[in-house]
C-alpha cells in the first residue's frame, strides 16, 4: 500500500521555515572572535533536518542546495575552517535563497534557477577558500561596480587562468534555434572544459515538453581566454538565458593549468544582480524597485509574500485545560438534562444554579479556546535582528536593536497582520531616525544608536512601541513640508501631536534623497490604515535631537471583546470595556458651552469634550437631549478622553466581533458589529474614531 506523502508537506514546510529562522538567528548571533561550538551545532542541525526532510519528500533541489551549506557548516564545527564575516554573509544569503525555494515549492510556482546557481557558486567559492563573490543575501550591501575584463590592468588580466560560467537557459531557448551543446563545443575549442548539469528543473516524463529546455549548467573552462571570446559565444542567447561569469585567477604566475584547482582564486567580474534589500519592504512600501536590471533587460520580479500559516503549534498544557473544561461542560449538560426530564417548581433553584454553572463553564471554555490562538509576539520580532544587521551594514551605521517583552502573547491573526506595518516602522527608524556615527559623536551621543522594540499589555490591548535615540522629528520642517505640498493651510494652528501626525498624510515625506530603503513619500499612510483596519491606533511622540517613539495600540484578539452595552434611544451600542473610565450624571454648574466649538464638562479640574451620541448617529428616538438628565460615560482612546452622552447603561457582556467593513463598508467611529442574544445587531464603537468624527 502506497502512502500519500503530500499529506505531510505542510508540516515539513512549517518546520523548515522554523529551522531557517533558527539558522538566521544563530548566524547573526555568532561571535567571530570566540565561537561557541553549540551555536554552530544548532545551525548545522537545522540545515541537516531541512536536507533530510526535503530528500524524503523528493524536493531534490532543496536537498542538493542544503548539502553544500551543510558541508561548509560541518567544516566550521569541526574546526577545519575559521568562521569569518564573509562566510557568515554567504550563509545568510543562502538562508534567504533556501527560504525562497521552499516558498516557491509550497506555492507551486517555479524555483528561480539563476538565483540558486548564484548562491551555489558563492558557497562553492567559500568552500574553495575563494574570495566571496556571490550575493550575500537580499539585504546585502550593494557591491561596488564590478570590473570588466576589458578594463583590467594588463598585469591582472595576465593572471586569468579560466572562467566559471553559470548558464541557465529560459524554457523557450530551443525554440529560437539555439543549441547549448554547440556552445559547449565552441567553449571546449578555447580551453579545457568541465560541465556540470543541474537536473532539478526537469519535470516528470508525463509533463515533459521536448521543445523546452529544463536544464542548467555550471561550466568551467581553463585557459588564457579573453572575456570577449566568452561573450561572443553566448551573444546569440543573451536575452534567452540567465548568465553569470567569473574569471579564475592564478595565485602564482608559474602555476600550471593542471594544478589550477589548488592555485586559483575566483574574483567577481561580471555583475551578479543584487537582490532587493527585502521582500518584506516591498510588501509595505509602494516605492519602485531600485534594483538593477538583469542582462536580459527584465527587472527581477518581487515575489509575493507567503500566505499566513494555516496551522498553529499548541502547548500540551493548553490542550489539557481545554479537555478538562469540555469534561466539566458535559457534566453540567447532563445535570440540566436530568432536571429537564422531571422538572418541578421546587427544583427552580437547582435550575438557576445549573444555568449559572453552565455560563461559567462556557466562559472558561471560550477563554481556553482563545488562549490556544495566542502566540508570543516574538514570531514578529524575530525578523528584526536580521533587518537591523543588514540595513546598518548597508548604510554604514552602528545600530543596536533591543527587544523587550517578546514573550507577550497576542492573537495569531494579529501577529500575521502586524508584521508588515512593523517592518516599515523599524526600517524608518533605522534609515531616518538613527544618525551616522560621526554625526552622533558631534552631537555628544554614543556612536552606536539604539532602536528598541517593546511589547506589553495595557487593559484589553497590546501596545507595541518602536523607540529610537536618533535625531527626532523637526516640527518646523514637518510643517513647512506640509504647507509646501498643500496638505495644510499656512495659517493653520497645530499642536505638537497634530504636527507629528502629518507624516501619516498620503504623499508626505521629508526625505532629502530617495533610497531603496525608504523615502518616496508613501507607506506611512498605508501603515496607519492597516493598523486601523486591525481595530487599532498609532501615535507618535518625539523630541528633536533626542529621538522618537511610535506606539501601536491593538486589541488582543480580533474575535471576542468584553463590552458594555449602552442605550441611545431605541438603538444599542457596544463600548469596549477597556476604554471606559467611569460614568456619571453631570450637574449644570459643571457644564461649559463654547459657541461654535461644542460642549465640555468639568471633571476633577479638567474640561473634557462631550459627544452627543444621538447626534453623531442620527438617532431621533433619544429619550432626552438635556445633558443633566442623561448619562455621561467617560472614555479614553489613543490618549484622548471625552464624555459620551447616552440614555442608559444596559450591562456588560462578551461579544463576538463581526467585520463591518467586510460585510458592508468602513464607518468612521465604528470598529465592527455583533449579534446580541435577542438576534438584533449592535455596533461596536471605536473611541478614537468617534473623537475624530466629533471634531469634524
UniProtKB/TrEMBL annotation:
<dbReference type="Pfam" id="PF02895">
    <property type="entry name" value="H-kinase_dim"/>
</dbReference>
<protein>
    <recommendedName>
        <fullName>Chemotaxis protein CheA</fullName>
        <ecNumber>2.7.13.3</ecNumber>
    </recommendedName>
</protein>
<dbReference type="InterPro" id="IPR004105">
    <property type="entry name" value="CheA-like_dim"/>
</dbReference>
<feature type="modified residue" description="Phosphohistidine">
    <location>
        <position position="48"/>
    </location>
</feature>
<keyword id="KW-0145">Chemotaxis</keyword>
<keyword id="KW-0597">Phosphoprotein</keyword>
<dbReference type="InterPro" id="IPR036097">
    <property type="entry name" value="HisK_dim/P_sf"/>
</dbReference>
<dbReference type="InterPro" id="IPR002545">
    <property type="entry name" value="CheW-lke_dom"/>
</dbReference>
<keyword id="KW-0067">ATP-binding</keyword>
<feature type="region of interest" description="Disordered">
    <location>
        <begin position="279"/>
        <end position="310"/>
    </location>
</feature>
<dbReference type="Pfam" id="PF01584">
    <property type="entry name" value="CheW"/>
</dbReference>
<dbReference type="Pfam" id="PF01627">
    <property type="entry name" value="Hpt"/>
</dbReference>
<dbReference type="InterPro" id="IPR036890">
    <property type="entry name" value="HATPase_C_sf"/>
</dbReference>
<keyword id="KW-0902">Two-component regulatory system</keyword>
<keyword id="KW-0808">Transferase</keyword>
<feature type="domain" description="Histidine kinase">
    <location>
        <begin position="344"/>
        <end position="558"/>
    </location>
</feature>
<dbReference type="InterPro" id="IPR037006">
    <property type="entry name" value="CheA-like_homodim_sf"/>
</dbReference>
<dbReference type="InterPro" id="IPR004358">
    <property type="entry name" value="Sig_transdc_His_kin-like_C"/>
</dbReference>
<feature type="domain" description="CheW-like">
    <location>
        <begin position="560"/>
        <end position="696"/>
    </location>
</feature>
<feature type="domain" description="HPt">
    <location>
        <begin position="1"/>
        <end position="105"/>
    </location>
</feature>
<keyword id="KW-0547">Nucleotide-binding</keyword>
<dbReference type="InterPro" id="IPR005467">
    <property type="entry name" value="His_kinase_dom"/>
</dbReference>
<feature type="region of interest" description="Disordered">
    <location>
        <begin position="128"/>
        <end position="149"/>
    </location>
</feature>
<feature type="compositionally biased region" description="Low complexity">
    <location>
        <begin position="279"/>
        <end position="289"/>
    </location>
</feature>
<dbReference type="InterPro" id="IPR036641">
    <property type="entry name" value="HPT_dom_sf"/>
</dbReference>
<comment type="function">
    <text>Involved in the transmission of sensory signals from the chemoreceptors to the flagellar motors. CheA is autophosphorylated; it can transfer its phosphate group to either CheB or CheY.</text>
</comment>
<dbReference type="InterPro" id="IPR003594">
    <property type="entry name" value="HATPase_dom"/>
</dbReference>
<dbReference type="Pfam" id="PF02518">
    <property type="entry name" value="HATPase_c"/>
</dbReference>
<feature type="compositionally biased region" description="Basic and acidic residues">
    <location>
        <begin position="291"/>
        <end position="304"/>
    </location>
</feature>
<dbReference type="InterPro" id="IPR036061">
    <property type="entry name" value="CheW-like_dom_sf"/>
</dbReference>
<dbReference type="InterPro" id="IPR051315">
    <property type="entry name" value="Bact_Chemotaxis_CheA"/>
</dbReference>
<dbReference type="InterPro" id="IPR008207">
    <property type="entry name" value="Sig_transdc_His_kin_Hpt_dom"/>
</dbReference>
<keyword id="KW-0418">Kinase</keyword>
